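WARN no homologs supplied; continuing
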Amino acid sequence: MKATSLSILLFFWTISFAVGQIYFFEQLADSAFELTKHRVVYDPQYFSIDYPNGDVPDDRGVCTDVIIRAYRKLGIDLQKEVHEDMEVNFDEYPKIWGLTKTDKNIDHRRVPNLMVFFARHGETKQITDRPEDYLPGDIVCWDLGGGTTHIGFVSNIKSTDIKRYMIVHNIGGGQVLQDCLFEYEIIGHYRYKK
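OK structure emitted
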């Protein structure tokens, strides 16, 4: 009888955990979509910001700020998470910018750093050309060419042809929702929940 009870309990815990995971990523997709309602000018300049929970001015930002702000709405401070991980594991992160130490003002606002962080602490998902593999709340990174990387969220809103989910990102026109999943070369695909 104990074994049956334990099996039933384990089954319901597994179902509850799975539902909780799905709910979190749906909330994350909603959080990202909510950002599209706020006017933001694309502004890649360096800002000195508070730590933790620092942010660039509300009306400014780049692609990484969409990711940071969506997570922050759910109580996750990527500025703090990335900074703390980089302090302990600096050699794991790219040296593209010639830095010799961490910088809490900018490290979390760089796509290659976020890619390393999500690979280290989240789930790295397969890169495919199948739309069904990209789910709401997934993070996608692209190579735009010329050494330029980009990042965005998979939303929970389908394209007009209903074949794929649209993307929330900022590629220069502010925080927007677009059908652009396969417009650029995908170089990263992640799910992250702290």
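The chain has one domain: 2-191.
OK
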